[in-house]
Structure formats: structure tokens, C-alpha cells
Write a structure and sequence with these properties.
The chain has helices spanning 74-80, 83-92, 98-110, 116-122, 131-141, 155-181, 194-203, 214-226, 234-243, 249-260, 268-279, 285-293, 314-329, 335-348, 351-355, 363-372, 380-402; strands at 2-9, 15-21, 29-30, 58-61, 66-69, 72-73. With 427 residues, it is mostly helical. Carboxymethyl coenzyme *A (CMC) is lined by residues 233, 264-266, 268, 292, 300-307, 356, 358, 361-363.
Amino acid sequence: MADKKATVTCPGETAVELDVLKGTLGQDVIDIRSLGSHGVFTFDPGFTSTASCESKITFIDGDEGILLHRGFPIDQLATHSSYLEVSYILLYGEKPTPQEFEEFKTTVTRHTMIHEQITRLFHGFRRDSHPMAVLCGVTGALAAFYHDSLDVNNPRHREIAAFRLLSKMPTVAAMCYKYSLGQPFVYPRNNLSYAGNFLHMMFSTPCEEYVVNPVLERAMDRILILHADHEQNASTSTVRTAGSSGANPFACIAAGIASLWGPAHGGANEACLKMLEEINRKEHIPEFLRRAKDKNDSFRLMGFGHRVYKNYDPRATVMRETCHEVLKELGMKDDLLEVAMELEHIALHDPYFIERKLYPNVDFYSGIILKAMGIPSSMFTVIFAMARTVGWIAHWNEMHDDGIKIARPRQLYTGYTRRDFTSNLDK
Ligand code: CMC
């Protein structure tokens, strides 16, 4: 809706009037789509001031530390819902009725197995490959196995692909782990919950049954809820950009996984745990803080700061609680958690972090929980990807419903002007 106007005076032109669009929440947005025809582009590397799309899925108020999925606050969802219910809400926009939820759960549960031939695909990877590399490759390859649902213009095909991705991602993720250990793959068990089944596929072996601990199952479910979606972050924008060309859903999700892998994004949970291990003792914290503040040192405090949150990340608050529950259940006194708590305390009182509004983010605690569960750090981002898949699909679908327009940014060119070519090489 546009009820306000903004005026821009382009070089050599009279003023151009632009619509100011108003969302239901959040900042107004100046519609600059017509500017190109006035001979100028806008310049915004990293999209710090650019709304790349219109969306009804997730809202973040970074100053207030608010995160809403389809209007529902994340802390309420994390406390009173389940990952599958949140998935339904993200995908369909409304809460499911008991019957709708039962049908949804049954469909997701019935599609957890993957094509048997995919198991052989794994054997092309080295056992010591990073599981994110394997996940990315195998997810992209799913298009070669499920090509009966690749017509992106057909809403039913998109729905089938969404179910396949949501159902099979835990199976593929757990297979990445089993493959790295050299253990046989464990098939899904459809009588278990989404999170329980994932833990089963991760930890049981043909010679030993894994009994799912309900506290760990709930913690895993919460981790999945807290990572399910996060508006137009780097990986979601990547999925939208890849999808804007009409690319198939498996390729788009593989692109999202690739983007998520970076340490500034989903890779931060793995990097955060490595950092805590490196800090090792509380006495070493001041040295690491000094390095984080030093502009000549590339070191940053992993698990701190966020492009959007300039307040406590609401997901970190829930994650912190879950972290304590898990350690209590397992009777563990984790030295790393003590280092983490001290680091958090010192950083929150340090003027450098206060002035820049750098607070702990979701990745600060998730690594400690996953480590306590016995999950190696190389799998942390894989679990993030598994959880985020539903958010990626919701955005990809929304983009198709709204009518796709290929993403094609322009640039500020600062290279050579035209020059004639004569080869330096002897001919
Ligand atoms: N440690 C030390 N200094 C920091 C940190 C940090 N973690 N994060 C930001 N800063 C400083 C930065 O040096 C800059 O200082 P100055 O103004 O003096 O130049 C200022 O804070 C603003 O930083 P920025 O790089 O302009 O902020 P950004 O919005 O581009 O970056 C971020 C956001 C998340 C990439 C960054 O905070 C970071 O690298 N954090 C560590 C990695 C991390 O935990 N990432 C997970 C994000 S949450 C999960 C997810 O979205 O995937």
C-alpha cells in the first residue's frame, strides 16, 4: 500500500516521485523500481538498506529483539509448539487443525526414506569430506531421482517437492554423519517424532538400539524450531535468487546450503565451539577480547553480533535455557559452558560490544547443546540446514505464488573503460 511519496532528484532531471510502501509491521520501503528509467541505479552492497522482496512469512524487529513467524512469537512457538507444527505454519500461513496436522505429519513421516540408489552416491565422497560438502552435493542430486515433481509452475509439483525435502532432509543429514564414521546407514523409523527419528538415525547401529531420551528429543526439536526460518538472510536470499530463474527446488535448496556454510552465517555455530575450545580457560578470555577489538586482526567473537538484531537475539534466550536443561539431564558440567557464560558476561559489559550492540546470537549456545548430545561440530551446520530447509521452501514457494521475476542486480562499474586489444603473446 502506498499512501506516502518520497522525492529523489536524479542528475540532470527534475524530481522523481516514488511511492513509499507500507508493510503491516516494520520500516516503510521506498519503491525505486522506476529509477532505472531515469538513468541511475541505487548502490547497496550487502543489501543493508534494500528490501529484496515482499513477504508474509517472518518478521524481525532487530532493535526490540522480536521474531515472529506468521505473526506468532518465536518464544511461544519454541515453548508450546513442535517443529512439524511450525513447519506447517511456515508453509501454509495458518495454524493446522488437529486433522490437518495429522495428515501433514503422516505425509512427512511416510516419505522419510530416500531412493536406495542414493546410498551409492555417498560412496563417491571421501570419508573425511566435510558433511556440509556431502549434504550440498546429495541435496542437489535429489533432482536426478525425483524428476517427476520438478515443474516449478505446477503448485502440486511444488508441494510434493516440499514434502520430499522436509521428509528426507533428516535422513540425508544422518547419512552424512554415518558415512563419515564408516558405519552403516540407519533407516528411518516412522513411529518416532521428527527429532526423535533424526537422533535414532544418528546414533543407533544395527547392533545396538538407541533409546531416544525425551529431554534430548525436545531439545533437538527446539533447535529445529529456532532455526526454521529467519526472513531474508543470506541463504534464503540465495534460494530466492536461484529459484528466480525457474531452477528446480532441489537445486535451489542446495544453493541455500552452500550459502549457509559460511562462518558469518550458519557456519558460525561450528566456529563458535572451535573458538570456545581455543579459549579453553576463563583466564584466556581477555586476550581473545583484545583480538576481537583489534582492527588489524581478522578474529571476531563467533556467536556474537547480527546484521539485524541490535538487541539480544530472542532465539539465544530460548537456546540458553535449553542448554541448561540438556546439561542437567546429562549430569554434565561443561567447562566450555563456563567459558561461554563468562565470555557472555564480560562482553555484555564491555564498551566495545555495548557501543556496537553486539549480543550473543543463536549460534552461541546451540554448539554447546549439540556437543553435549554427542554430535561432532562438523555436523552443526548440517543440522542448521536441515532445520532451515522448511523456511527456504516457504520462501521459494511464496516467490512462485507471487510470480517470479529473475533476480538481476546491476552494478557500479569501476573497471577499465574501453581499450583496444593487441596480444602480448607471440603468434
Ligand atoms: N566480534 C567483534 N567485532 C564485531 C563482531 C564480532 N562478532 N561482529 C561485528 N563486530 C564489529 C565490527 O568489527 C564492526 O566494528 P566497527 O564499526 O568498529 O568497524 C561493527 O561491529 C559492525 O560490524 P559489521 O561487520 O558491519 O556488521 P554486519 O552486520 O555486517 O555483520 C555478522 C553481522 C553476523 C556477520 C557479524 O556480527 C559477525 O561476523 N559475527 C560473528 C559470526 C556469527 O556469529 N554469525 C552468526 C550470525 S546469527 C546466525 C545466522 O544468521 O546464520
